[in-house]
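Deliverable D5.2: sample structural annotation.
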Amino acid sequence: MSHGTLAIDAGQSGIKVRHADAAGSSEWAGPGIRTDLPLLPQLVQVVDQAVEAGHAFDEVGFGVSGLTSEESDAGYLLASASQHGVRAVRLAHDSITAYLGALGDKRGAVVASGTGVVTLAVGRSDIARVDGWGYLMGDAGSGYWLGRAALDAVMRAHDGRGGPTALTEVVRADFPDLERAYIELQSDPERVGRIAAYARPVAEAAEAGDVVALEIVSAGARELAASVIAGLRRVGEADAAAPRIRAVGGVFGGAVLAEAFSAAVHEALPGADVRVAEAHPLDGAAALAAVAPTSALAAHITTATTD
């Protein structure tokens, strides 16, 4: 008899979990995963903590940020979880679960931007992942990218290389001595999330008309639009009459960025059906079991069962 399901959205800024059974559902959150450390043991710990909290389940769906092909090992996770009565584990990159949570099996593109960012485009038979290459090599338009740009702008203003910005006082509240900020951040193991947290003040400053913040937000929106357009072209959907595009994640909570993103997409694809912030990645993690074998997404979900 099925006890229930566990859906896990494992991101860098936080891990969200949903337990569901016949009695209803509950959700909770915890610290984000560390992509510079082995991922699978961290995921095992999330399952163990759910069991320790008194939840029973026999199926688990994971959407994981930074998941590589080498770590896409649902069997490893099942070997640990089976002692708790788990009979099936499904594992996918969080671009897959973000997509499912927004568009299901429909063709189109989904860009998910939080601390990091990844875009997934799905066509009739192919999928294309764009960016999601981490804060060192990519993640253009992500929360980290926006926060990093804010810090850069503040230091440019401090040096006299750039114009004044309201962001200076925001950063100075955390670092009264601006010239020591980089030393503290470099030595902080939580620096990625800490820097990404400046994305919200950037959005607020842009709303208030700060010129520097507006430039940062506009540039981020163009980066996100470029990723979506590239993905649709790669899977042959850019020429569709009304390609479906969904934008999810905390970065799109800023109205200025959301509007600039839509405008940038429509400049290239006038007929695009663009909608912002209409999905929850946990819905996608829960939907992994329902993906049709004929879907282009099916080959990118790793499954392990005890049957």
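Annotation notes: The domain at 5-94+282-305 is CATH 3.30.420.430 (Nucleotidyltransferase; domain 5). DSSP finds twelve helices and eleven strands in the chain.
The annotation will be released with the project's public dataset once the embargo ends.
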